[in-house]
Structures are given as structure tokens and as C-alpha cells.
Design goal:
Blueprint: E1 14-24, E2 27-37, E3 42-46, H1 53-61, E4 68-74, E5 77-80, H2 92-99, H3 101-118, H4 124-138, H5 143-153, H6 169-183, E6 187-191, H7 199-211, E7 215-219, H8 223-229, E8 232-235, E9 245-247, H9 250-294, H10 302-325, E10 349-358, E11 362-371, E12 375-379, H11 386-393, E13 401-406, E14 412-415, H12 427-440, H13 452-455, H14 460-463, H15 472-485, E15 490-494, H16 502-514, E16 518-522, H17 526-531, E17 537-539
Parallel strand pairs: 3-7, 3-8, 5-6, 6-7, 12-16, 12-17, 14-15, 15-16
Antiparallel strand pairs: 1-2, 1-4, 8-9, 10-11, 10-13
Helix pairs in contact: 2-6, 3-4, 5-6, 9-10, 12-15
The structure holds adenosine-5'-triphosphate and magnesium ion.
Residues 24-25, 27, 29, 47, 49-55, 82, 462, 465, 469-474, 499 line the site of adenosine-5'-triphosphate (ATP).
């Protein structure tokens, strides 16, 4: 328990970031961010994977020191990280106690003061009044109940004795999310909170964020949540001046404004390019004149040539200077995802399940068959067995009853909900080794191997980084690249929108509509569900 409990500042709460810049490794991640948070703030941070969204949240929370600039905080802050570790031995109860440590400390302070008052201590009056103020500021009497309500509403583990490390990633995340929602700090900073929530969880989270009295900063790719909640949008994608684009007017207003700004920027860029080309041509022409000016022609006056040459040299220099002074200010264009050609096997049943169940994970028998070109959307609440079903299809799990048949030469590629990649190896090495192994095993014909760069999922400078130094979304992009590298006949995607940027999810959805491969997607993402509304659905029932 902390010795000095943090006391919420409520209406006075404020976080002010001024001219914030952060460099990670050799990358300048954030430049000149100015942002003010108040209890009324409903701010969303968006941008491509690896732009610095998580970095900005950590800088606001104080868990990362900016390279320059300042962050001033009045009040208390809770941050729900994108990925959460679980120290060995730590239980659900420990996580709850840690999250509401301050309100619990305030209650203990009040008990002590009350006991002193009862014992007739004169000074206890003042300390009782202070303790009561702290308890009220935290609404400490309700703290435990608030967490319990959130645990139940999010479908999180409610058995306080369970070890966090023994829970699935999603269940663990929901415990942490319930803890921060229940803790009632002045500011709530959430990093991709919807990744592990089902429909009920999403509804609870949305209602909670609307109603809470403190400020909210949200990093999310969930377009439905952004449209519903965000008032201010901080877009970390490149801008002409390198500073983030901050706009009011909600997500819809932001999209309009962005389209207009993008058009202006593109026109300015075209003018800049044209000017650059003109200067370059002018330099080349001057250089050519210089060369031909020096070439002695029979009967030419040598003295005249030399005089002219001096002028030409000056003219070349002047043009060179002009060209160098003319900078191109447009930043690197965004990556374009290029979905590879996947193969089709006409008339062949790639995989089929017949009355399959898995004890404790998928209790109602499932039968289905996949052939090339099939689409299937698997939905259902948390714990219904969606991941289990995908694992059965890719052969990673043996059923308790029923049978699975897979065509001998059919390749099944599966993007798991979370993948464990080796943190110390470089993304490009892992990809290259993966492709070599596929070729050596005869799974992939060398002629159909794709290169990492050609997929447009990772920039080459990121592909050269240690995986542990990549952002969560960049790691997930690598996982997707690994799956696509095998050119699967059947593609299984478990919550594909998790951690991926909005632009990539749009591109991926479009590619999935068109591929000749069989595609199975499990998702809670409301926009993704709308975009695949015509696909056959398999809705699994709650356990
Ligand atoms: N520990 C680290 N060391 C060096 N560079 C890092 C480290 N962590 C992140 N980076 C780099 O900092 C940049 C920003 O990372 P950050 O995690 O803030 O991005 P993000 O916008 O949250 O991405 P995502 O959408 O994938 O979650 C990325 O280019 C990443 O490669
Ligand atoms: Mg992030």
C-alpha cells in the first residue's frame, strides 16, 4: 500500500503536455505535441501502427520520460496498457487490490482516525476530517463494488484466487480493464481496450466511458467506438509540419477535415515536385552548356570560350544551390498493403469438421466443410469457443469427440489472436527463416515465395529492428506476413483487427472479399462485422 495515497483532484484535475518530443532508439517518434486534458476530455489518438500512440499515452501517464518538453499532472491517472504481463503468483485479487489501493488506504486512514476519536484524542478531529475528505474524493466505500460490477460486465474472471498467468490473454486483459474502470481515477488512458471484448463488453465500456466523471484518452482502431465517443481526435500520421493534427468535431468531422487537408497537401506537394523538376532540368541544362562550352571547336576563339566558361560555372553553382535550398517537405507516403495471390483447389474439401466438440471449450457439436472461395464469419460471446474452432480447423487442437478431415496437400494458414514472436530476433530474419523452412519442407514452391517488403506490411527500417522493439501493431503485421508467406488455401483469422491500424483493416477486409482462398474470420469488431455482413455466419452460444 502506498505511504502517501494519491488523492483525486476531480474538477481541478488537468494534464498539460507542452511541446512534447520523444525519441525511441534512433527514431523520432513524437514531435512538438501540445495537449491539454480536463475531466471533460474524450480524446482519441489514432495513426498508423508504430506512429507513437502507446508512446504518447505513456508520456501522458508519466511512465515514460519525454526527450524534451513537459507534462504537468494534477490529479490521478490510470493506464490500461495494450499488452499486459502477469508476474508469476499474482492473482486476480492482487490486481484488484493494487488498482484500488488508494481508496482502500483512505478507508484504513478513516478507520484509524475513527478509533483515535473514540479513544478521546483531541487531535483526531482534524485527521478524521482529512480522512473523510479523502474517502469521499475516492468514493472509496464503493470502490470494491465498482470493480466487481466491471468484472462481471466485461465477462472477466471473478474468482479472486485465480492466478493471472493461468488466464487466457483476453481474460487477463479484461481483469485489468475492469480494475482501471472501477478505480475511478481522474484520468483514464486506454490502449486498444476493445481488443478482447465481446458485444456485451463493448456496450458496457462505451456506456462507462460516456458516463464517467473523469477525462478519457483512448487509443483505438475500433471505428464504431471512435464515432460514438471521441470528441477530439489526435492524429499522429505525418503532417506537413511534423506536428500531430488535432481536431474537434468527433470522428466524422475528423474524417472530413482530413480528406480536405490531404487534398490541399497533395496539391502543394505536386507544385513542389514540379518546381523541383524544373530546378533539376535547369541545372542539367546549365551543366550541359558547361560541357559543350568547354569542348573546343575548330577555329573557336580560346579566350572567349574561357570567359564564357566562368559564367557557366557560376550558373551551375547557382542552380545547384537553388535545388539544394528547395526542400521536399512531404513525409514518407503510407505503406500500401499488397495481399498476395492465394491458390484455389477447385472441387476439393480443404478441411471439414463432423460433429466436433472439445471438452470445456466447445460443448455444442459443430459440423462444417471448407472449400476454396468459401467465407465464414464466426461470432459469439467471450468464451463461446471461437478460437477453439479455429484451432481445430488448423489442426492445432484434437477434438474430444467427432472427426476432422483435411485434404493432404491443403495449406491452412492461421493468424492467432496473439502470437509469441522471438523478441530478440530481427523481423526480416524471422520472415526469411520461415520462408526457407517452408521451401525446405516442400510446403512452398520457391517460385511462389513472397518477399516481406512486397507485402507492404513493414517498412524496411522496421523489418531490420529487433521484434521486441517493434510496436504491438508492427508485431501483428509481421505475424500476418508470416501467415500469408505460406500462400494458404484456407486462411483463418482470429480477431484480425486487433492492434492493426484502421487503414490496414480496411485494406485487409477488401482483399478478403476477393481472394479465391477459403477465409474464416472470428471477430467482435462492429465495423468489420458490417463490412462482412453478406458472409455466412456461425454464431456460437455462450458457454
Ligand atoms: N523499446 C523500444 N525501443 C526502441 N524503439 C521502440 C521501442 N518501443 C517502440 N519503439 C518504436 O517506437 C515507435 C512507436 O511505437 P509505439 O508502440 O508508440 O507505436 P503505436 O502507435 O502505439 O503502434 P501500434 O499501433 O502498433 O500499437 C515504433 O517505431 C517502434 O518501433
Ligand atoms: Mg500501441
Amino acid at each position: 500500500m502506498p505511504t502517501t495515497p494519491r488523492i483525486p483532484a476531480r474538477q481541478r484535475a488537468q494534464i498539460t503536455a507542452a511541446d512534447l518530443s520523444v525519441t525511441r532508439g534512433t527514431t523520432q517518434v513524437l514531435t512538438g505535441v501540445d495537449l491539454t486534458l480536463t475531466p471533460a476530455s474524450r480524446i482519441a489518438i489514432i495513426g498508423e501502427n508504430g506512429r507513437g500512440k502507446s508512446t504518447l499515452l505513456h508520456a501522458l501517464a508519466g511512465s515514460l520520460t519525454p526527450t524534451s518538453g513537459t507534462v504537468r499532472r494534477i490529479g490521478t491517472v490510470a493506464l490500461a496498457e495494450q499488452e499486459m504481463s502477469a508476474p508469476p503468483g499474482c492473482t486476480v485479487g492482487d490486481a484488484v487490490a493494487e488498482a484500488i489501493a488508494d481508496p482502500l488506504a483512505a478507508l484504513a486512514e478513516l478507520d484509524t482516525a475513527a478509533a483515535q476519536l473514540a479513544a478521546g484524542s483531541e487531535e483526531a478531529n482534524a485527521s478524521y476530517a482529512t480522512a473523510l475528505e479523502h474517502v469521499e474524493a475516492h468514493d472509496a466505500w464503493n470502490a470494491e463494488r465498482r470493480v466487481q460490477i466491471a468484472l462481471a460486465a466485461l465477462g472477466a474472471e471473478q474468482d479472486l484466487t485465480r492466478e493471472l498467468a493461468a488466464l487466457s490473454v483476453g481474460r487477463r486483459y479484461r481483469v485489468r480493464l475492469a480494475c482501471v474502470l472501477g478505480a475511478d481515477d481522474d484520468f483514464l488512458l486506454l490502449d486498444e481496450p476493445t481488443n478482447h471484448l465481446d458485444r456485451n463488453g463493448l456496450d458496457f465500456l462505451t456506456a462507462h466511458l460516456h458516463e464517467r466523471r473523469g477525462g478519457v484518452v483512448l487509443v483505438s482502431h475500433d471505428r464504431a467506438l471512435l464515432a460514438d465517443l471521441a470528441e477530439t481526435i489526435v492524429d499522429l500520421d505525418p503532417t506537413p509540419d511534423g506536428r500531430p493534427r488535432i481536431s474537434g468535431g468527433g470522428y466524422a468531422g475528423y474524417r472530413e477535415g482530413r480528406a480536405a487537408a490531404q487534398a490541399r497537401w497533395e496539391q502543394a506537394y505536386e507544385r513542389q515536385q514540379a518546381e523541383h523538376t524544373r530546378l533539376q532540368d535547369s541545372l542539367s541544362a546549365a551543366q550541359n552548356r558547361l560541357v559543350s562550352g568547354w569542348r573546343p571547336e575548330k577555329g573557336t576563339n580560346k579566350h572567349g570560350r574561357a570567359t564564357r566558361a566562368g559564367g557557366l560555372v557560376q550558373s551551375v553553382h547557382r542552380r545547384q544551390e537553388e535545388l539544394e535550398a528547395h526542400t521536399i517537405s512531404l513525409p514518407e507516403p503510407p505503406l500500401n498493403f499488397s495481399f498476395p495471390e492465394l491458390p484455389a483447389r477447385a472441387g476439393v474439401e480443404l478441411v471439414s469438421l463432423d460433429e466436433v466438440t472439445v471438452a470445456g471449450r466447445l460443448s455444442i457439436p459443430v459440423s462444417l466443410a471448407l472449400t476454396s472461395g468459401d467465407r465464414l464469419l464466426v461470432t459469439g460471446p467471450n468464451g463461446a469457443g471461437k478460437t477453439t474452432l479455429l484451432q481445430l480447423l488448423d489442426g492445432a487442437l484434437t477434438p474430444s469427440s467427432g472427426t476432422i478431415r483435411a485434404a493432404r496437400t491443403a495449406r491452412v494458414g492461421s493468424l492467432p489472436q496473439e502470437s509469441a514472436l522471438p523478441a530478440d530476433r530481427r523481423a526480416s530474419e524471422v520472415f526469411a527463416t520461415h520462408v526457407e523452412v517452408l521451401i525446405a519442407r516442400g510446403v512452398l514452391d520457391p517460385a511462389s515465395a513472397v518477399g516481406l517488403a512486397s507485402l507492404g506490411l513493414l517498412r524496411s527500417r522496421d523489418a531490420g529492428k529487433r521484434i521486441g522493439d517493434l510496436s504491438m501493431g508492427q508485431q501483428r503485421r509481421l505475424s500476418l506476413a508470416l501467415v500469408l508467406a505460406s500462400r494458404p488455401h484456407a486462411l483463418l483469422l482470429d480477431e484480425p483487427s486487433n492492434h492493426l491500424s484502421i487503414a490496414l483493416v480496411d485494406e485487409l477486409t477488401e482483399a478478403l472479399q476477393a481472394t479465391p482462398a477459403a477465409v474464416v474470420v472470428s471477430s467482435h469488431d462492429r465495423q468489420l462485422l458490417r463490412d462482412t455482413a453478406t458472409w455466412p455466419r456461425l454464431t456460437l452460444a455462450a458457454p
